[in-house]
Input
Amino acid sequence: MYQLLSAARHQGQSLFRVCRARSLAALKTTYRPQSNKAEESVTYDTAARPFEEIPGPKGLPLIGTALEYTPFGQFKMITNLRGSFRERTRTYGSIYRERIGPLDLVVISDPTEIEKVFRNEGRYPERIELASIKVYREIKKLPAGLINLNGPEWQRVRSSVQKDLMRPKTVGAYASLQDDVTRDLVDVIRALIGKEESGGQVQNFINYVYRWALEAISVVVLDKRLGCLTLGDLQPGSDAKLMIDGVNDYFASLVKLEMSATGLYKYVSTPTWRKFAKAIDQWHLVAAKLLKEKLAKTATKDGKPAESDTDFLQSLLSRSDVTFEEAMLMAVDLMAAGIDTSGNTLMFNLFCLAKNPEAQEKLYREIQEVVPAGQPIDDKVLNRMHYLRAVVKETFRVYPTVLNNVRRLDRDIVLSGYVVPAKECIEYLLLYIYIYMCIYISSYLQTTILMAHDVISSLPEYYPEPEVYRPERWLRDDESSSVQPFTLLPFGYGPRMCIGRRFAEQELHLGLIRIVQNFHVGWAGEDMKQDNRIILAPDRDSFVFSERT
Output
């Protein structure tokens, strides 16, 4: 939602009034089928109802429902964003329309309709830009980065770098290296719970998980260990400390900027903007230094990188269709994303296993069968871990790391019996007080579709007993495993699927295997809740570990 508010502001117009003129007849007149059959819009049903009839909250003039997402509203952006989608769906059904400022948002929670959106998103699927990142990179004269690119430029970069990030064989080559990192995390946990006063509880466990995540992505991107999986606190000013703190501050301030109602930071250096920029500067500086060290280490006498079968950075930089700056920025972004997303997702999985000891015991038995103690883990071993994958899917259902998928339409479509135009006709009324006259300017904004997977995850028609944590529902040999396609897409779908998915899954699977193999995972105190930092994060880490015998 913060991205959506940001996108609305980014249009740059000051509005005194926004009025829409769109009818079914007009849509039929303006519809033009694509020449490529694979990219054709959905044919309109003559019985389809017009866009204006999609139900939803009315809100106030000009600002719509924007106030409800402020710290004073019922759906506070940081702590209760999930409540908005679920409450609205209960009230209005599986499709509703909500205006937040000048932005019209269509929210759908029917997997059949979600599939329709993905199947008809065209050659260049479009996501909403993160405006604060765009502003920062424009100021610093950096490439836009894959997350903010759209159109042919996005396809150019994506098609090149995904060769290094999405091939199973390429990712699998790093499994043993990432497994070594995870073994070190196990050693740290063992040492911490061995202290007499610990009682098996590891204080500030998330800090160690973030260190593990940084080490695990560093062996891929940098081909080196940073040495941050130690018992003591990280040294102030150390590379690992600066990276982790910088990434945490970055996400904490990013969500505040993206949900800002005014976008004041674009024109004035606000305190949040200064914290945001300082955080990025901090981890960019460290990552750039480490990357340069890596390049210098692998260079031969003629200045070119030496040959290597598992040199991720070398392979990335060898792509002729991306610039050196784009490749380096991709490496920097991977390191930052790896800390937060992988770390938080491991925390959610461990919490779900701690609260559901039967599932934890079943996973332990699978680990004992497939990965006997002392045996190394490679990609072939991971492919045999069916219950492990079911655990991860079920955790994504109840404790998602990302709530929903968002797309902007590039063609008209019918969803749940309503015509949804690719572009809305917007008329802006500009009032010139001094000459007492009004001028109307018509323009078009792309329609934004939010696919509410988190809502679907709570509905019994798709998941019997949705309040129950049951990984078995994902096993193909189980009678209740007929989960409908497109109900859960934690990494997105299609050409814009999360480009780091395979590395993230491999790292997560290794972490769960080694921790559950060595420890029984318990929990003390209040249940974990989730804070919204663009990526959802745990609000506590009260794990209690006991060594398995």
Summary: The chain has two domains: 2-125+405-454, 156-402+490-547. DSSP finds 18 helices and 13 strands in the chain. The two ends are 47 Å apart (CA to CA).
